[in-house]
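[audit] Reproducing an earlier prediction to check determinism. Same input, same settings, fresh worker. If the tokens differ from the archived copy the diff job will pick it up downstream; this log only records the rerun itself.
[audit] input (901 residues):
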Amino acid sequence: MSFIYSVDIPIPNVVTVGQGTYIPFSGWCLDTDEQIRGISVSINEKIHSLTHINDLRTDVFAVYKSISPAYKSLSSGFYGMIPFVKDDIGKKLKLTLNFYYSDRVNSLDIGYVYCQANNAVETVSKSKVNPDLNEPLIAICMATYNPKIESFKKQINSIINQTHKNWILIVNDDKSSQKSFKELCKVCEIDPRIHVYRNDSNLGFYRNFERALERVGDVAEYIAFSDQDDYWYENKLSRCLASMEPDVSLVYSDMRIVKENGEIIFNTYWVNRENYYEDISMLLLANTITGAACLFRRSLMHVLLPFPYPIGQIFHDQWLSIVARSMGRIAYIDEPLYDYIQHSSNIIGHADFQVASPSERLFKLLKLTKKFIFSPRDSIKANLKAYLQRGWTIYQCEFRRLELMAANLRLRVGDKAVTDLSVLNMFNDRWFSIFPLLKKHISLIQTHTTNHAEWRLLQSRVLVTLSKRLVLNLNKLSAAKRQTSNILAEPACVTTTKKNSFQTALEAKIAPLELDIGESQPIRVNLVIPEINFKYLFGGYIAKFNFAILLAKAGLKVRLVIVDKCDFQPQEVTEGMIQYPGLEDLLNYIEISLHHNREVTLPVNPLDSFIATTWWTAHIAHHASTQLGHPEFLYFIQEFEPFTFSMGAYFAIARQSYDFPHSALFSTALLMEYFQQQNIGVFASKHKNSPLIASFENAIQTFELPALAPKKATKKLLFYSRPETHAARNMFEIALMALNKAIVSGVFDTEDWEFYGIGTEQLKPSVPLANGRSLQMLGKVSLDEYCELLPEHDLGLALMYTPHPSLLPLEMAAAGMVVVTNTCMNKTAERLKDISSNILAAEPTVDGVAETLAKAVILSNDWNLRLTGSKVNWSSSWEQTFDRELIAKIKKKLSHEERYV
């Protein structure tokens, strides 16, 4: 791994431009060999340099600590704002990400973006507006989501009762529940001026208000926002309209703060805070204009839309307030014109600003400083880490949100602004923006107008600048060169060690971990795995990850220790795990540590435990456990792995792994039975007293099948076809010869059959079969595609020459297919039939498989038999697979509790 990168905030495939817009773009990149000196994004060859490289990324650092220089991964982040302007509208633009080195540019195509003027949404037609009223038309935009129906009804009635009658109400629902939406629609039937729309998906309140605003079109002269559960006084619209003087762009009023039961909390919004709306920078620091209190001109729409990209906690009314102030004067009505209802479902309720004098704040600061300095060393470290993380969070979520809003405002308004936009320089992420923030804080230090937001931003800016500079200097001072172990699958390969002796690939593969043993470390369970690679993330790895999560949920601190070379990227893991039910939050439960480079130390507690998941990780786990003084580890056995090699060194070393002291957790009772019959591992005489021997069943997919047979023009066979050397157990050659023999014998002549293959990319698009037939190769498929694919087929062919049954035949059976697989040692036809009557096991010969295919074709016509066989006698959930009793035994074993009994 010399160069890797990942994008956290990508540029969308479609960008709504309007008068112009900035789209944030962020991610991280690492080059282990050379220094990246700059990054840019090219849009149709027009270059936009990213203003921030070397951003701190603690998440990347946690995984890539082994990258040299030591802190390079910590300063791997990048960020920038990419502008799109009116000239881009209607164009499909090519995106290129450029990484600049001292002597070259590494350019990567990252896709295309189509630029549109605005979102194509349904708007209110002019034909639905009453043309006879001589009052200005006001469009009221209400965003709803599962409203409490009584509160919603009260708000609707308060709008209907307005003394200003020329209005339309756009109710834009954010995909509430069907029940809630039906109730909402019934309430809205009371008045034809109410127009109800529903989003196809849930957008969140910010985008929902944007969508409601887009639906206004050009029918109204003025616009008002409304919450779904407030109560408007009957003169709200008329009073606001009366204050709309020619130079005024927006009017807003005071409000009462009221409980759901009608009890008044405050008679005004301005409790412990000042109302300040003249200075546009103040509106960015601490907005005082509430959306539901406003009336504004439709002429603001061309600047308002599209809303800026949401970073952190962003609100539609703050964006409205700064646009309105840049385009005109803001007027305030010093009387409440509605009740702002406070309850648990408020997106944001009324909040007081903390009142503290400068002396009180100084005392608090001294108290915190004293607590920090005189805390134990571990507490100081934790407090410092928390302070740094808080500073970076404020910078990334608050400062960058304000920076993006300010940049969009400048781009769209430009020299048409009626107020001085130079005050927005404090939200420019150049080092000199620190001084306007400091100046603003000094001018506000005696007040609590902004709740000291400018002070938080100032601290975060200073912290970010200093920490980035510190890490960059540490990188320059770090002269360590990483020694990379060349772990390959071919036994003939050798590498040179730092001791200038030859090291075979086999030796490198089983090389022990470098432990850093300390009692200050938390006690962990270390699950040693080869890699995380979504190309190979099937049953075995899914079992390991679910096992890890259930151990973590049982109270153990679990860490995945990755020992093979892989391009592990946290963002890809987070996104990739979404398709695997139960694994979406994997990284929330476990730690991950990379140790392909064995010189990178693994911090452990003397009471740590190790779990091996393959033969070579068993060698690694044995060495680590022995070094900790308790040599027995837990072996997660999913195969008799020497079967995967021809007779030789790899076979012998793999076989040796079962001779180490261990407890055993077998994937299937059949596999455990084979080990027992052959006296292998925990069943050998020297292991008879092992405290834990158990088996489990990998959870399989289940399928909803129709009661009646689906009507199909053709029948389909699905062949698990894997010709690769590492998949020799699947006996591709025998299966293919048997399938051709069955075709020649006329087995498939009675009906029209189609043949499909999955499991490999090598044979695409098709493989010729006998009699002019062909096997259409579907390649490797995602889990969702897999679950859709299986029930579409009638017959499955999936061989596996091992003692365990393999998952695919079981899931084929569960999908209603008649399945041909093979016997092997103790895996008999009777044992497989006990699992499902849909499974037919053949002798592992060409004749045996061909004859069984003939039987399977006949049985495939019996839908009721297939339905019965789809009720597979096997686990279908990981909680069933690793039940509480088994997890409790394993937890006791891993916690070394038996040592203290």
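[audit] rerun output stored. Observation attached for the diff report: The two ends are 47 Å apart (CA to CA).
[audit] end
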